[in-house]
User: Fold this.
Amino acid sequence: MSILCYHEVDPAWRSVLAVSPDRFARHCAWLSRHRQVVSLQQAVTSLDDAGHRPRGLTALTFDDGFAGLHEHALPILLRYQLPATVFLVAQTLTSGGRPVDWVDDPPVKPLQTLDRDQVLEMLAAGVSFGSHSYAHQDLTTLTDEECERDLRRSRDVLEDLLGQPVRLLAYPRGRHNERVRAAAARAGFSHAFALPEAPEPAGPYALPRAGVWSNDGLLALRAKTSDWYVSIRTGPVFPIIRTAARIAGRRTSS
Ligand SMILES: [Zn+2]
Assistant:
């Protein structure tokens, strides 16, 4: 199983986080032909008790809830009938709002996030939503109580808006540790998703995703939705050493 993590779909913002609509359409066309794309809920339901991931499934997720998803991603998802889950920063949907100040390379024009009407329109169109925390803080820097409060608050805001349970969480910047995973469980989440840059042990509260970046073409997409890619990046260390040894062996013998 591979879970892809996109951020924004936007033609103007030059950032690794922003895939152009043309490129996103090519990704979706390829995925609909070559992969079994399932909803994230279906993907987690198919996990076994040990957190092992069945092979061959792909799920699409989007972090941060940027407004371009409504304008640019939704029509393409509908065209190819692909299920998707958007992880929202709950505070952006409160009356006080929250400016996007967590992006490393923001565009000149302030980044907009989805408003409540857009979220509800996407929900009615079949898009699913999860929590990306309340305030997009690095949860590993909070105390246990602060972390649990932030996560509970995010569920309250989102469940109130969506009118349905919110049980899936994507950690801001993918950052988590044992305390954060325990707080996510106490706050009522059933599963939580990371974005590992290096191999890390997987479990129901540390489900790995592969980031999809602005320059990723179909070859990269093919790799990131292959079972070997997920197992190399997230499995225990020894298969990687074995793989590296195999590659090294091949190089020296050729
Ligand atoms: Zn984020």
Residues 63-64, 132, 136, 172 surround zinc ion (CB under 6 Å).
